[in-house]
Amino acid sequence: MNIHPCYTLRNLVLAAVLAVGFASSALAQEVATFFVDLNSKEASTLGGESSYASGINDLGQVVGDFRTANGFSHAFITGLDGIGMTDLGTLGGGDSVARGINRAGQVVGESGTANGPSHAFITGPNGKGMTDLGTLGGNYSAAYGINDSGQVVGYSWTVNGTVPHAFITGPNGVGMTDLGSLGGGESYAFGINNSGQVVGVSMTSDGQIPHAFITGPNGAGMTDLGTLGKDYSYAYGINDAGQVVGNFVSHNEPSHAFITGANGLGMTDLGTLGGLNSQARGINDAGQVVGGSDTGDGVTHAYITGPDGAGMTNLASLVNPPTRFIYVSATAINNHGQLVVVGDVPLVPEPEMYSMLLLGLGLIGFLAGRRATA
Questions:
Q1: What average pLDDT does the segment 290-295 reach?
Q2: Which tens digits make up the pLDDT trace of 97-123?
Q3: If both were cysteines, with which of 152, 153, 281, 332 could 169 make a disulfide (CB 3.0 to 4.6 Å apart)?
């Protein structure tokens, strides 16, 4: 397992991610990932307790990673409507993880290579084959999003080996272009739509503070989305209208999910399910947002909004979770009412632990080294 340096921006979320581990063990005997269909009102388990799903396309193909029998993590893709699970293998290293998928079933993520460092990868349609996307000159890269033309986004160490920068590729993952930053040292790309607008987070020149950003088509330019008056903001998803979702937060204050208007204009606080914290993980073309939120009693639940982020509804009120489980956070949604959701079996929780778990789930995708491998 490679251990990559934690740079300033990543340090801001490290404590939250560590908290997930402690909170998960304290709160749950089991953690599982579910395929939830709002049309049939049914939920099914993906890979038992050993999988984490990160993306879904409009055919219902799901991607993520699962724990193999020998203890490695491998990227997977499912068939239509979340049925079946195929191991995508690696680039020659021990581990891999998938984070995004397009309509053709091209999958992106990162994998350990035969030489050690993890690199971003892309597959062919329906997860066939795995191609190394290389880096921006450093020894590490990770891919998080892909659009229907096969443009891939993520981040990579640059040639000096010390600064991660967001990147975009051309169609089918060809070429890798440095997107720069908002004036600070680091930037990370997490989402892309079909016009090539990219979203993520970048340090600013003013005090090296992380702000959410959006680019123009094909990654042109980088615009600061602001923070709604808070200290930090992070963007995780974008739809074809350019509506962006993510989180904003200030020191020692709750984290709230946000949505913007078309092309990243304006930022609206999505509120919570009655508790302190919320986070947004995904958005579809209707503007339905998914993520997780604290409820009034301090328990964290997955939610879905109406179009354009209107209203926040506890997902369990629409589709019952399997026996004993609660839905903690929805990680992705497609345009046909299908979602992937993380759930657990709660014991006797402390409300503060649920808040830590929520924040960590909102930011867990932020750390490239979650499954970085040798």
A1: 97
A2: 999 999 999 999 999 999 889 999 999
A3: 152
Q: How many C-alpha atoms does 113 have within 13 Å on its Cβ side?
A: 16
Which tens digits make up the pLDDT trace of 137-150? 999 999 999 999 99
Residue 1 in domain? no
Cα distance between residue 46 and residue 32, in whole Å: 7
Is the distance from CB of 234 to CB of 247 less than 8 angstroms?
Answer: yes
pLDDT of 269 strictly over 50: yes
Q: Is residue 298 part of a domain?
A: yes
Domain count across the chain? 1
Instruction: Please report whether residue 2 resides in a domain.
Output: no
Please, which pLDDT band fits residue 324 given cuts at 50, 70 and 90? confident
CATH number of the domain where residue 100 is located: 2.120.10.30
Q: Report residue 34 as tokens.
A: 């579910």
Q: Which domain holds residue 93?
A: 8-370
Contact status, residue 214 vs residue 264, Cβ threshold 8 Å = yes
**CA distances from residue 7 to 86, 93, 143, 348 in whole angstroms, order as listed:** 34, 24, 18, 35
- Ranked by mean pLDDT, the top range of 43-52, 296-305, 348-357 is 296-305
Listed residue (244, 239, 241, 240) closest to 223, CA to CA: 244
Length of the chain: 374
